[in-house]
Amino acid sequence: MYKNPFSKTVIGDDEPLCNQKELLSALLLEAYSGNNNVLLAPRRAGKTSLAMRLARDYRAAGGLATIADLNSVPSADAAADRIATAIYAALSVSDKIFKMLSGLVTAFTPVFTMNPDSSFSVSAMPSGKAKTGLERLVSVVDSLDKISSHSKTPLLVILDEFQDVALLNGSDQIEAALRSTIQHHKASYLFIGSRRKLLRDMFESPQRAFYRGATMRELPLISPSEFSAHLIALANLSGSVWSPAIADAIVDIAESHTYSVTAIAHALYELTMLNSPTELDLNKAITTAVARESSLFTSIYSSLNPPARNLIEALAEEPTKHPMANSYIANHRLSSHATVRKSLTALAEGDHITKSSDETIVLTDPLFKRWLNTKWNSRQLISNVTLT
Ligand SMILES: Nc1ncnc2c1ncn2[C@@H]1O[C@H](COP(=O)(O)OP(=O)(O)OP(=O)(O)O)[C@@H](O)[C@H]1O
Ligand SMILES: [Mg+2]
Questions:
Q1: Are residues 235 and 323 in the same domain?
Q2: Are 49 and 127 contained in the same domain?
Q3: Does any domain span residue 13?
Q4: Which of 195, 281, 300, 355 ranks highest by number of CB atoms within 10 Å?
Q5: Does residue 49's CB lie within 6 angstroms of at least one atom of ligand 1?
Q6: Burial class of residue 138 in the structure, from the number of CB atoms within 10 Å of its CB (0-12 exposed, 13-18 middle, 19+ buried)
Q7: 218, 236, 254 — which closes off a domain?
Q8: Closest ligand 1 atom, CA of 46?
Q9: Residue 288 domain-assigned?
Q10: Has residue 289 been placed in a domain?
Q11: 29 with 169, same domain?
Q12: Is 47 in the pocket of ligand 1 (CB under 6 A)?
């Protein structure tokens, strides 16, 4: 029995990762050196997979690495809880390390639970030593430094979707408290985020606490030829022969966007299994891959206000360098310059659109573009009409 080799979730420690070798080795060096970095990339570009691989490699070399996911975190208290839990998980590499270092997290105590398969999970319970959510967050971040001081190499702290901290109530105070706690740390921080404008503003705006606090890096797109060869190799491991023409077509249609390529390849393998796919199979797989994202795309679409919906549909149909041009506004029936300007800001903040290398404004997610271009039938089938 073969398994579908195309994983639609974060890539596991023992699964193959395509490329990103240069970035991984640069980030590994930064971790050893105790430096802080920001990694920016659009949604579903492969940020978390890269972070997990970095943590794995850092651990393999004897370091300690912790990853906390701050995606949609609702409060400073919840952020403290997620970071404390991540620290406990990181320290669980050995009993000795856990016993030696977990006591440094004074704002929490670890709670162990036995799972049905006899493995253990760890969670964090407030110890009562810190009174408010903000105090708990500052305390837990401070304990990252204490842990780092006790280990031979800097502790690698990865904070995924870090920009969501900026959306919390009292975020100014939280950012300032975190920055002053982190400033003199021996630990090495990697701040990751997909809402690139928000994250950039946190680190590049002089008014913000994290101003110039880290080196900014972009996650590069995987080169089409490498991605295509990767697809062929994975299909081959699962017993199927994929032609370069099919693999190239997937990467081309999905514009090398990591998740989109993977989702189409996943649907194609499911459809053809051990048989070599044809062009017709590929077309079916693309339709399936787009349909599977429909509920996500519907919720993104309905979360936008009507002018932003109009604009994103226009950009899906006709990417442009000049969305404010009178002809573009008239052709796409957009209401006014002012609303287009506002919508552009909203769509960029949500990271739904981006500028390509030649400054054309395009959608960040090629499957979303395809969905928008095929969702609303501009022609409907009619019957009982005879055209003369
Ligand atoms: N280097 C890689 N090579 C091949 N596939 C990859 C690579 N990195 C990620 N993927 C695949 O791309 C998809 C997205 O990966 P991942 O969840 O790591 O991205 P992300 O940027 O963290 O996404 P999100 O914005 O949802 O948090 C997954 O299907 C994953 O298996
Ligand atoms: Mg992620």
A1: no
A2: yes
A3: no
A4: 195
A5: yes
A6: buried
A7: 218
A8: 19
A9: no
A10: no
A11: yes
A12: yes
Q: Which ligand is nearest to the CA of 49?
A: 1
- Cα 85 to Cα 102: distance, rounded to the nearest angstrom: 11
Pocket perturbation via mutation, ligand 1, pick of 262, 293, 300 by most ligand atoms within 8 A of CB: 262
For ligand 1, say whether the CB of 181 is within 6 Å of any of its atoms.
no
Q: How far is CA 135 from CA 24, 72, 356, in A?
A: 34, 20, 42
- Residue 9 placed within a domain: no
Domain carrying residue 314: 295-375
Report pLDDT digits (tens) over 58-73.
999 999 999 999 999 9
Instruction: Compute CA distances 82 → 121, 168, 361, whole Å.
Output: 14, 15, 36
Query: Tens digit of pLDDT for each residue in 209-249?
Result: 899 889 999 999 999 999 999 999 999 999 999 999 999 99
Which CA distances in Å does 291 have to 7, 267, 373? 18, 11, 13
71 lines ligand 1 (CB under 6 A): no
CATH of the domain at 335: 1.10.10
Q: Is the CB of 194 under 6 A from ligand 1?
A: yes
Exposed, middle or buried, 74 (CB in 10 Å: 0-12/13-18/19+)? exposed
Does the pLDDT value for residue 181 go beyond 90?
A: no
- Render pLDDT for 323-363 as a digit per residue (tens, 0 to 9): 999 999 999 999 899 999 999 999 999 999 999 999 999 99
Query: Which bound ligand lies closest to the C-alpha atom of 45?
Result: 1
Closest residue CA from atom 12 of ligand 1: 259
pTM higher than 0.70 for the full model? yes
Beta strands in the chain (DSSP E): 37-40, 65-69, 108-114, 120-126, 156-160, 188-193, 215-218, 353-355, 361-363
Closest ligand (CA of 9): 1
- Name the amino acid, one letter, at 335: S
Task: Answer yes or no: do 356 and 308 share one domain.
Answer: yes
